[in-house]
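Retry 2 of 3 after timeout on previous attempt. Resubmitting structure tokens to design endpoint.
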């Protein structure tokens, strides 16, 4: 079987099957909920501007191109081309999904620790917030090459899990975990400021984590 899902314009979630490709709207680059300089000194404005307006925009543009080619191949019954387009759809679609989550996971008013149900779940599944932070940092540092560190929700088991994904592989599409918090460890996310010292970037990013957003995602994932 060949399965393909497209991404909704507003939330970049995997939502609909093949047939909807015919009438769907093109994906667009979401606006940031803050200025490029808002996360300084932890992530500088130049990084945010390039990351959002260049890198994320490229994923969006390439996803639209790949989907258009897929639609044409689908209309022709060209299964070979449909199969050959899967890597581009996964990479650019994942890049769009991941970054759309990432921007909302960050906030100039972030940092500190979560509260309420999310904090209780973290203590239940990791022992303490400190243990969770250490584990997610270690997994993110340990990503070989480019990729992401994630806090996800395992709906079947009813628990939080930490995972790493290579390149732009989307968490839910490749592991089944519902994404709550993603940390981008591609070099374009930090190199201009932190050079090749990924641990320094990961230490800094905890100061801008938007726990309200992560908590909201957790509440939604349990429904």
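Retry 2 succeeded. Sequence:
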């Amino acid at each position: 079987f060949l399965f393909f899902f497209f991404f909704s314009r507003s939330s970049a979630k995997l939502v609909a099957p093949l047939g909807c490709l015919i009438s769907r709207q093109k994906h667009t680059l979401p606006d940031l909920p803050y200025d490029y300089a808002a996360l300084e000194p932890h992530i500088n404005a130049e990084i945010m501007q390039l990351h959002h307006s260049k890198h994320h925009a490229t994923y969006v543009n390439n996803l639209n191109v790949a989907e258009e080619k897929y639609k044409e191949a689908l209309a022709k019954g060209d299964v070979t081309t449909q199969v050959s387009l899967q890597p581009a759809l996964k990479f650019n679609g994942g890049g769009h999904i991941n970054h759309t989550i990432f921007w909302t996971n960050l906030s100039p008013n972030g940092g500190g620790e979560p509260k309420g149900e999310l904090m209780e779940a973290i203590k239940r599944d990791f022992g303490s917030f400190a243990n969770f932070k250490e584990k997610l940092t270690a997994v993110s540092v340990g990503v070989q090459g480019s990729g992401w560190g994630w806090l996800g929700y395992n709906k079947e088991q009813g628990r939080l899990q930490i995972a790493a994904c290579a390149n732009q592989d989307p968490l839910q599409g490749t592991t089944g975990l519902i994404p709550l918090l993603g940390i981008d460890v591609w070099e374009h996310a930090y190199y201009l400021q932190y050079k090749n010292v990924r641990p320094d970037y990961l230490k800094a990013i905890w100061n801008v984590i938007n726990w309200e957003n992560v908590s909201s995602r957790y509440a939604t994932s349990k429904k």
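Attempt log closed. DSSP finds nine helices and five strands in the chain.
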